[in-house]
TrEMBL record:
One matching Pfam family: MarR_2
UniProt-listed InterPro entries: ArsR-like_HTH, HTH_MarR-typ, MarR/SlyA-like, WH-like_DNA-bd_sf, WH_DNA-bd_sf
GO function terms (MF aspect): DNA-binding transcription factor activity
Occurrences of domain HTH marR-type (ranges): 6-140
Superkingdom to which the source organism belongs: Bacteria
CDD domains in alphabetical order: HTH_ARSR
Stored SUPFAM superfamilies: Winged helix' DNA-binding domain
PANTHER family for this protein: MARR FAMILY REGULATORY PROTEIN, TRANSCRIPTIONAL REGULATOR, MARR FAMILY
Protein known as: MarR family transcriptional regulator
Species: Kitasatospora indigofera
């Protein structure tokens, strides 16, 4: 592959990722969660299924503990998460999704499925399966987090 072909992949992949985040965000809003931003969704990824401490959320999002704490405060006010005693650290609090948070997560999953459905229609099921396998080899961590 030529150098030009390698570099042409970058804007295509980044553009597709941007389009996907925007489509999921729009789908979540269309499903009645219009007080959520994509950054909240990235935090939800870390909170599911068992919750996390503010420090873990900060590390996942790549922000300071103070910024993560402010984000958690906002999500508590909106009813998406709650703080509970940490099961193994008496000094810490565990942040967990509430039923509203889980409902929003399900809405995001539905919106994501809607966003990629046209890909299968365009490329076909076999090519989508191959693409999924290729992407799993290229990005085996599967980390879903923002890159600020």
């Amino acid at each position: 592959m030529t150098e030009n072909a390698d570099s042409s992949l970058v804007p295509l992949i980044l553009g597709l990722a941007t389009d996907l985040v925007q489509a999921v965000d729009a789908g979540v809003r269309d499903r009645g969660f219009d007080d959520i931003r994509p950054a909240h969704g990235f935090a939800f990824v870390r909170l599911a299924p068992d919750g996390a401490g503010v420090g873990e959320i900060a590390a996942h999002l790549g922000v300071t503990k103070q910024a993560a704490s402010q984000l958690v405060d906002e999500l508590v006010r909106k009813g998406y998460v709650e703080r509970r005693p940490h099961p193994t650290d008496a000094r810490a609090r565990l942040v967990v999704l509430t039923e509203r948070g889980w409902a929003c997560t399900r809405a995001a999953d539905e919106a994501a499925a809607d966003a990629v459905r046209p890909w299968a229609e365009l490329l076909g099921e076999r090519r989508i399966r191959e693409l999924r396998e290729d992407l799993a080899r290229l990005g085996p961590s599967g980390r879903i987090r923002p890159v600020w």
